[in-house]
Amino acid sequence: MATGKFRLFYKDGHVEHPCVGVHYQVVSSTHAIAASGLTDAQGETALFRSLGDGGRYRLLVRQTAAGGYAEPDAVEEREYKPELELGAAQDGKHALQRVRIKPYFRVRFHTHPDGKPVVGAKFTAYTLDAHGKEAIARDLVKASNVSGKTDAKGETAVIYCASNVVFKFEVPGAGIKVPTRRLQPLIKGQDTTIYDLPFKTVRATTGPAQNHEALLSGKTSAPVLISPSDQELIMVPQGDFDEFEEMSGRLEKIMEAAHLAKLDLSRALESQNEQEISAAEKALGLAEDKVKSELNKNFSKLADLKEVVTLETYNKGKNSATGASQMGLRRRYLKTDKYLELKNKRLNKAEYKLNIKFSGAAGTKASAGVNPKALDVNALKESFQKISKSLKSSKEWKTDPQVLNMLDLAGNEYADNIIKSETYEVEAQAQWLRLVGGAGASAEVDWTKRKAQIQGNLQGKAVLCEGKMTGRWAVPSLKGWMMSFGGEDLGAVRFIVECELYGFAGAKVVASGAVGISLEGGKQVAKAIKRDRSEVLAKLIDPKTKLPRFEADGPYAKGPENLNGVQADLDAFAGVEAGLTPGGKIQWLPPQEKDFVSFAEVSATLAVSAGAGAGAQLSIYLAGGKFRIKASARLCWGVGAKGALEFTVNADKVAEFVRWLYYQLLHAGFRTLVYVEHQAFRALSQLLLMLVAEGTPSHKYIEQVSQNVNESFIQFEQSLELAQKRKAMVDNINRVPHWLVHATPETRGMLLYQITRHGMPSHMRDAPSLGEGSLFDPQVHYLPTHKQAVLNIMGTVQTRSEWDNVMQHMTSNGQKSPRSAGQNEGDVLRFLNNGVSLAELPSVFEALNEAGPVMKPVGDKKDTGNAYLDKYLKMRGKLLGKFPKGYRVARLDSAGFEMYAVLDGARSLQFAQIQTAGLGQAMAGDPGSSVA
Question: Strand 523-528 to strand 219-227: parallel, antiparallel, or no bridges (unpaired)?
C-alpha cells in the first residue's frame, strides 16, 4: 500500500535541526485527516496510508494553543513544500517529503511579580560566531541585525532566526540591561509560542532625604574579582567587567546545559514518553559534546584555569523588615591569561592583596588541612578596608561610590563563608572540581546555607572553599529499572552510585558523562571512558511498564581486569587523572510501599571470586562470608558505561536482601534463578534456618554465622539433637519471625524435616493436648506446639508451585529429596495426625491423590476429625496458581489473602511505581532531595 510521511527541520548554517514536538495534521484533497499527532525526535510525522486512490496530501500545523490548523512557516522553495503526492493504496510505494521550516523568536518583557509589560524597551539579539565570540544575530527574512523595541504588550515582533540567541533588553530611562538565557528557536505548532522574560523589581518610596536611593534593578554586580588561590582582590573598569561576565558566563552556560540535559532525561524517563526519552538522550549527547569540546579547547592544561569569586548586591524584597541590601558571592571561571590581563588593568594598583591568615598555620597560603575557624577575621576585614581607602583616594576611580561601600559588606561576607566551610581549600584541583560539580549548575548559590542547587540527578555539597564533594546519581532515573527474568517482571530496582570526588579524577568522571569500572590491586576503581553511543535508553523502554528494562540472567565470567584500552574523550588535565573509589547502594521497591529500600552497598574491595563479569547484568554469589551482587556498570552508571561493580550485603541489610530475593522467586514462579549462584542460594537457605531458629538474631550473630555458613550449619544441626534446642526453635517459629515469612522453599523444607523427626525427649518438653472433638471422643494431639509450627511454616506459602517446592526439599540440608514431593507431604500429614482419636488418613490421601497432583485440594468435606489437619488442608486449598504482583505476602488463613483468589496472576497498578514529588523531583530520602 502507498504510504508517506513528512520530516520537518530547520537549518542553522549548514547544520540541520529536527522540529520536535510540533502538533500536526495531514489532510487529503477532500479534507479527510490521514494522520495527526506530534512530530518525533527526528522531526517526523507518523507514517500514514493512502486513502483510496491516493492524491495530494497537505501538512498543517497548529496555529495557537487553543487550536486551529494551517500551513507551516516553510521556506518558499519547491523541494521543501508541505505537500506530498501518493499513489493508489495498492501501489506499495513509500514517500518522504522534507519540509524546511522558518524558525522564529518572540519574547515578552514584563515586570515581576505584577506582570506589567515593559513598553518601548530596546533590544538586540546576540549569538555566538564560529570562534565562540558574541555577535549580533541576523534576521532570516529581513537580512538585517535582530534589534527593535517592545510594543504596547511588552512583546517583540515575530523575528525569523535560526541561531540560539540571547536577547538583551534595556529598561527605558534606567540604563539597565536585562538579558534572557540562551534561547532556542521556536517552531510554529509547538506548545511554546512565546518566551517570557520577567524583570524583577522592588518597591521604593522616595523620602525627604536628598541622597535617598532605591535599587530597582533587582541585582547589581560589582566590578570586583577575588582570587582565593592568590589572595588577591582586583577592581576592574566596568567595560572590562562586562566582558568578563560574558566570557566567564559562557563556560557556566555550557556546564549548566549539560546539567539541565541530565534533568530533562530524568524527567523524560519519569514521564514515560519514548519520544521524549529519545530526544532527551540526543540533547544530552550534544550537551556533553559541547562540554568536552570547550574544556579540551580552552582548559586542556591545569594552568589554563582560574577560579575567582565575584560580588553582587540585591534587595531582600517586599517581605523584608528593613529592605537593606545584602551581599552575594558567586564563583566564576576564566582562562588564566585573561585574569592576568584584567589584573594589569585593575583600578586598585596600590592595594590589592588580602590578608588571609590562620592561627597556628605555617605561612599564609591556604591548604586542605587548614581549620577555617582559626581564620584571623579582623586581619581579613582590615585588608578590605585598606583596599577601599586606596580606591577612594585614586584619581582613576570615576564610578558609583556605592560600589566602594560594598567592599565593607564583602569583608564580612567573605570572612563568614570561609569560617562556614569545612576546610579552606583553594588548590587548583578543588577549583576544577567546583567548576564541573557545581559552577554550571546554577547561577545563584546561597553560600550562607553552604549549599549549591545542583540540577538533575547529580547533587553535591559546594562550600565556598571546600575541596571535596560527593556526587550521587540515581540510575537511570528515580523510578529505577524494571528487572526481568524469563519474560516475567520481577520489580523495580535502582542503583544509587556515589563518589567522593577529589581533584581531577572526580571532575573528569563527572564531565565525561561515562564511567568504566576496572580492578586495581583488588579494589574497584571508577575511571572516565568514552560513552558507547550505540546504546540508548529509548531502546530499553518496556512498552508495558514504561520503565527501562534489563534481563537478569546472564553468563558467568571473570570480571574485566581493565577497560580494554577504552580512553576518555575528555583531555582536560591529562596525566593527572587517578581512579576513584566508588560507593553507593542497590535499592528496591517493596510491594505496596512508596519508598525504595536499600539491601546492598558497594564493596570497598573485591572478593576473590569469579562472579558475573561484564557479560552479565546481575549476579549473586557468596565470598568472604558475605553475599555479593555484581552488577553491570551500565546499570549503575548509565547506558554506555563499561565493566562491572560489586556490592556486598552487610549484616544489617540481610533481612531486606532476604525479602527482596523472596519476591524475586515468587514473581518468577519459584524457578531456578540462574543469576543466583547455586552455592550462594544453598548457603542463604541454611542461614535462614539458623536465623528462624534464633528468632531475633543480632547483627553480630548474623555476621558470625555468615563467615562460614556451612560449618555453622553443621554445628547447628548437631545441636538440634538436644530436645531443648529443638523446642526453642519450635517456639521461635510460632512467633512467626520475618525471616520465616520470606524464607526460601529450601529453608521451609529443612524446618519441616527437623520438626517431623522427634524422640521421647521432645514429647517430654511438649506435652499432649486435648483439641476439638466431643466429650466422649476428644482429639488428643501429641507435640501440639510442633504441629502449630508446621502450620506457621506453611502459612505464608502463596502458590502451588512454592508448596510443591517445599515438599521437594524436605531434607536435613535443603538438597532436593530422593523421595517424591507426595511422599514427603505424606510424612507431614502423618505427623499432624499423630495422637489419639484423630482423622482417618486413608480417605485424606485418597482425596489428595485422586487426580495425581500433589497440591490438589481435598474437596468440600468440612473436617477430617483433626483440627490441625483441617487448618493445613484449608490453607492448601487456597493456594494460587500465580501470585499477583505488587502485593504483600499474606497468611493463607488471613482475611487479607481472600482477595488474592480473584487476583490470581494479576498485576497491581502500583507494581514497581515509585511516587515522586513531581517530574525531576525527589521524595525525602531520594538522591537529589537534599543538597546538604
Answer: unpaired
